[in-house]
Backbone:
């Protein structure tokens, strides 16, 4: 079947297959990979990337990007630590942090949609600004004495399994994001905006509003991740999650989301996230030096930009041959 | 003018039994063509007939699978566009590609400017050479003007001058008039006649048949990659030519039905966008086709964009069925029953990488929804229904629209908007660059829509189309409405007079 052939070279499928191969190899050949403790480390360390990758995927599909996510997460953690030190209840602090994330996203979104600035430039600016505010808020303190039931939730596992407790809420969010991107009119409009903003506007799609919504959602998820991070590692510091935006963007691109917008699947992006996470975990187990790990991640980034293009060219060539066949028109 | 015949001058360029396939598609089958010096030769055929492949073979872009290219009777092989150019063959495309920030002279001599000592560019010599070229063409363009801001017509002149500077003896013009207004076409034809009289061979491609008859002496017709005929135009009628192109008799090109106009559907009141258009007021009634004519740049497209909400207006207002539209909001215009088929189908009408199904589906994101989710079944049947109704030729509804020919792409844009069931349809250049068969289909469709009670506003630079289809003609000149002419009084003269600002309003 030509159709299954051309589907088979879709990049997200390739990434999914790579992930499975890596997991099988790791279970078979890497000492210490398969035990529950390591697997729960792997998932727990990958969750922050996965959480932010959800809205980031939607954002990149629509042709924009947000590099300030790690700083937003850090700022949320810092504000959380400061307010806790001030004696506020954690049940009040968390909603305030999420509201702060919404505001961070709103600032990015308004700068991009109202002033028409490129999101890459805007969010590099707010990347620095939000991190700076975080340092002003908390200085060099580290707040660690959060209530134990929250720390236990963020670091604990479900029963005897290796699954972190936070994994279930993540699965719910993943399901929501998959449906939003691939099954709603909203998601459909994001693909149209990313592929051709002008044509989307001429089709009556409210381009600026959709983008603003995405930036706000991204800010919200980034602050949620910041809260999770502080609890998971039992440490709220101004420099929490520094550099996380690169892992998120690398994973999303690795998962086949086109940097130019308009193409990709959330499944591919999540496969990219866990491929990157598993690879880093395996390299650590194999005592690969941190420097070498960075080189591998860098190479992966380049591959992730090249790979989907090559895969697409193969499908286009196949489709061209198929179109050249004298098939009857309906 | 010399009259080449069998005993006359030899062809400067000849194609003999050229065949070219792409995969299983045979784009050209045993096609021959002879171009004589001092002759304008038409190449006719519908979209997909093989015209583009033939041109690209002449231009050295494609190498033929079989057959020979003869230059002055000698077989030649072009390994690339550079070879063809060096052999004196130049192709002028519909949309020229100049460097906008360089002057006309710099564009013409890009990369081979006359030099002075130490390799410095000799601006004076460049300028003088450009002036000489313009004199040869008989046009008055300042060599120092930057290319930015030149009309498409002027840009084409620059391209032609560039071709001349390469000593081109064969000039291929691929739909050069598609984006030109009447007076610009006249000037272009003046240039073409000048070149012809200087001994150049010109291959001319146009979807406008009257232009072919106006300027060409012979015509070669292609259909489905095969050669149908190569013959003098003397004694042929437009119907004869159409029959050769489409292989059957074509119903009338402008099948306008008489419809009694109903209620006012679209009402535009004193609409103004500063610096773009001023004080535009008009109405379109149900069942009416109103033509909006004018020169390119008169502000017609800009009015349509503002009415639909793509751009904001500064003063005035728009009503659809008596309901005022929100300024700058296409979604509310759509909800009110307004549809706009935009001028640029590739950038504005379609998302090129998306499938036919999804492109048509884009206007149904509010309607083909069940419980907040896309109803894929409803979306597919809506898209299929309209693709079939408009007879879009495709192999699968899930194929990208970029795989379709221009005419079929335009049908997809129409399908996308007709699927919304509009009460008011604005079409901007609905048949630009599409073949005559599809053009007649689009006209029949517009006529039928009007008969069904849709109010149609048709912007077009194709004057025969305006005259053939419109019940009334509105004319714009420099951002203002200068005339409203009823069908009975609309002629090329009255419309052009108003479009060029010569009318006594």
Residues:
């Amino acid at each position: 079947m030509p159709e299954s052939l051309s589907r088979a070279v879709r990049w997200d499928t390739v990434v999914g297959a790579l992930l499975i191969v890596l997991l099988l190899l790791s279970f078979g050949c890497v000492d210490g990979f398969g035990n529950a403790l390591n697997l729960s480390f792997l998932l727990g360390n990958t969750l922050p990337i996965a959480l932010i990758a959800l809205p980031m995927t939607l954002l990149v599909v629509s042709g924009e990007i947000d590099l300030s996510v790690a700083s937003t997460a850090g700022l949320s953690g810092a504000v959380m630590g400061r307010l806790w030190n001030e004696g506020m209840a954690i049940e009040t602090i968390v909603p305030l942090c999420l509201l702060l994330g919404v505001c961070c996203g709103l600032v990015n979104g308004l700068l991009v949609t109202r002033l028409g600035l490129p999101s890459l430039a805007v969010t590099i600016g707010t990347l620095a600004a939000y991190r700076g505010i975080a340092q002003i808020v908390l200085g060099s303190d580290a707040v660690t004495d959060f209530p134990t039931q929250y720390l236990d939730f963020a670091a604990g596992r479900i029963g005897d399994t290796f699954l972190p407790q936070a994994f279930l809420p993540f699965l719910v969010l993943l399901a929501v994001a998959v449906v939003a991107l691939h099954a709603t009119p909203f998601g459909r409009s994001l693909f149209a905006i990313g592929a051709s903003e002008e044509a989307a506007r001429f089709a009556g799609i409210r381009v600026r509003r959709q983008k603003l919504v995405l930036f706000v959602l991204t800010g919200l998820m980034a602050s949620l991740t910041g809260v999770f991070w502080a609890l998971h590692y039992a440490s709220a510091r101004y420099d929490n999650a520094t550099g996380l935006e690169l892992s998120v963007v690398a994973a999303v691109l690795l998962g086949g989301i086109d940097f130019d917008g308009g193409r990709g699947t959330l499944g591919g992006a999540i496969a990219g996230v866990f491929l990157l996470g598993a690879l880093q975990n395996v390299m650590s187990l194999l005592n690969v030096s941190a420097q070498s790990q960075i080189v591998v991640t860098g190479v992966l980034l380049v591959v992730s930009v090249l790979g989907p293009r090559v895969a697409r060219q193969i499908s286009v060539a196949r489709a061209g041959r198929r179109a050249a066949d004298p098939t009857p028109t309906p | 003018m010399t009259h080449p015949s069998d005993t006359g001058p030899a062809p400067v360029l000849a194609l003999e039994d050229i065949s070219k396939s792409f995969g299983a598609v045979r784009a050209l089958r045993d096609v021959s063509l002879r171009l004589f010096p001092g002759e304008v030769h038409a190449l006719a055929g519908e979209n997909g007939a093989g015209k583009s492949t033939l041109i690209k073979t002449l231009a050295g872009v494609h190498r033929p699978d079989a057959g020979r290219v003869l230059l002055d009777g000698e077989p030649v092989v072009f390994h690339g566009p550079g070879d063809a150019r060096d052999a004196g063959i130049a192709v002028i495309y519909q949309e020229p590609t100049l460097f906008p920030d360089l002057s006309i002279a710099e564009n013409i001599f890009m990369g081979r400017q006359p030099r002075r000592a130490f390799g410095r560019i000799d601006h004076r010599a460049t300028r003088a050479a450009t002036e000489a070229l313009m004199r040869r063409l008989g046009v008055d363009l300042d060599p120092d003007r930057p290319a930015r801001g030149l009309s498409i017509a002027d840009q084409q002149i620059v391209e032609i001058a560039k071709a001349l500077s390469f000593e081109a003896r064969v000039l291929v013009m691929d739909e050069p008039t598609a984006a030109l207004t009447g007076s610009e076409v006249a000037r272009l034809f003046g240039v073409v006649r000048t070149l012809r009289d200087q001994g150049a061979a010109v291959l001319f491609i146009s979807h406008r048949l009257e232009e072919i008859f106006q300027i060409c002496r012979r015509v070669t017709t292609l259909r489905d990659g095969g050669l149908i005929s190569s013959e003098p135009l003397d004694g042929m009628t437009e119907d004869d030519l159409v029959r050769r192109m489409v292989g059957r008799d074509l119903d009338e090109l402008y099948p306008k039905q008489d419809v009694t106009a109903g209620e006012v559907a679209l009402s535009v009141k004193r609409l103004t966008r500063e610096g773009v258009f001023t004080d535009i007021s008009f109405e379109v009634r149900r069942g009416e086709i109103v033509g909006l004519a004018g020169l390119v740049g008169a502000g017609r497209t800009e009015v349509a964009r503002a009415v639909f909400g793509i751009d904001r207006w500064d003063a005035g207002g728009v009503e659809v069925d008596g309901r005022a539209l929100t300024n700058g909001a296409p979604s509310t215009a759509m909800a009110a029953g307004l549809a706009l088929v935009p001028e640029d189908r590739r950038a504005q009408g379609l998302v090129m990488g998306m499938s036919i199904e999804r492109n048509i589906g884009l206007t149904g994101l509010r309607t083909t929804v069940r419980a907040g989710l896309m109803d894929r079944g409803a979306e597919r049947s809506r898209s299929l229904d309209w693709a079939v109704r408009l007879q879009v030729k495709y192999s699968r509804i899930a194929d990208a629209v970029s795989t379709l020919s221009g005419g079929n792409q335009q049908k997809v844009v129409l399908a996308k908007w007709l699927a919304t069931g509009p009460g008011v349809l604005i079409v901007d250049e609905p048949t630009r660059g599409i073949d005559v068969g599809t053009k007649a289909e689009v006209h029949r469709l517009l006529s039928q829509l009007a008969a069904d009670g849709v109010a149609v506003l048709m912007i077009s630079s194709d004057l025969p189309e305006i005259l053939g289809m419109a019940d009334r003609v509105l004319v714009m000149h420099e951002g203002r409405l200068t005339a409203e002419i009823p069908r009975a009084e609309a002629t090329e003269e009255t419309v052009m007079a108003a479009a060029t600002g010569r009318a006594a309003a």
About this structure: The first helix of chain B runs from residue 51 to 58. Chain B touches chain A at residues 22-25, 310, 330-331, 333-334, 340, 342, 347-354, 358, 361-363, 365-366, 369, 372-374, 388, 393-397, 399, 403, 416 (CB under 8 Å). The first strand of chain B starts at residue 13 and ends at 22.
